[in-house]
Amino acid sequence: MKAIILVLDGLGIGAQEDSHLFNDPKTCNxxxxxxxxxxxxxxxxxxxxxxxxxxxxxxxxxENISSKELGFVDIDIISSYGVxxxxxxxxxxxxxxxxxxxxxxxxxxPTFPNGFPQDLISEFESRIARKVxxxxxxxxxxxxxxxxxxxxxxxxxxxxxxxxxxxQIAAHIDVISLEExxxxxxxxxxxxxxxxxxxYLTARVIARPFAGNNGNYYRLNDKRKDFSxxxxxxxxxxxxxxxxxxxxxxxxxxxxxxxxxxxxxxxxSGNLSILNKTIEVVKEEFNGLVFSNLxxxxxxxxxxxxxxxxxxxxxxxxxxxxxxINSISYDDILFIVADHGNDxxxxxxxxxxxxxxxxxxxxxxxxxxxxxLGYRESFSDVAKTIFDYFKNYLENDLKDLIDxxxxxxxxxxxxxx
Length: 417
Prior knowledge:
A hairpin with a 4-residue loop joins strand 4 and strand 5. The chain has two domains: 2-107 and 231-411, Alkaline Phosphatase, subunit A; 118-228, Alpha-Beta Plaits (2-Layer Sandwich), CATH 3.30.70. The protein is built from 14 helices and 14 strands. The strands form two sheets. It has an eight-stranded mixed β-sheet, sandwiched between helices. Helix 5 packs across helix 7 (178-194), helix 10 packs parallel to helix 12 and helix 11 runs antiparallel to helix 12. It is of the alpha/beta class.
């Protein structure tokens, strides 16, 4: 018996009512805007499998438009579906995943669209006994193209950030060893936690080693290391772990939860590889939680304002999602969701404050397909629903430790498992 949370990172479905508070326009809509722009130059693709899973129904319910014009077809729906609302006061990856796991955050982590304050950088340079270069918002691949030669010449590590709350440090593996780079990142993490009361604390410090020469640099993603803030209170993962159930993370999920309450982690990269690893895990015999993140929607396409890549990734997902559907057992339950938006058609490379899709599927005979779950009050409704599904495996007094409202009674004829 498994609960599977599959996060389509950044695949929002339309502005939340409070989007203006996050400097996002009411027109932001990662999914619909990407599809509309894609159609203008690339023609239509028919999403048969995602139509079967109710994504077209979500678009029609949320946007009050016909999804047929965007490539969705009339077909029997095998899932139940709805719209998730982020209740946390943020739009970053960490906060979104924490909310899916049962924590609604009143305050988000700081971001640094103009780079980090000079007093912080000066203190960091003093602690590592090296100057740094960069200190701006940048794509990881682009900044090593721009500053790689200077870094190799001087030995100065490259510091940069992104739309997320991250302090990233890139260094050539032949200039600064992996061991030293990891140590530098530990120093940065300690500094951010304690400097001026932690006002500059980011959600993660990330070591970004690279190799190559003369401008032909490439990142060593398998050597990446994240130093993450621990969740501030109990998550669904903690409850499963404390109940001696498996908690399997695929992709970057373990880093998001600072590796806490994870029994197995597979740090696979690339949407298709992550999906395939998820399928492998789901086929194994165990009771517990599988939490996977398909990162490419956000990292490769949203942040780089590439709506063509965004839609091509969705097409790839459509062509492969049934492999996962066919792999789950009768008592498994699958949630396909997102953690925020990242509209590649707007004027920013930042995340966007959007509602996200909710698709729920099970082969259980009591599961009710075709149910419109409406607007859910928070991402944490997913966590509370999973708790109820597993309540025979969990202590009931742990339920109040996580936020959210269960909708299990809406999708099962009876949920006395």
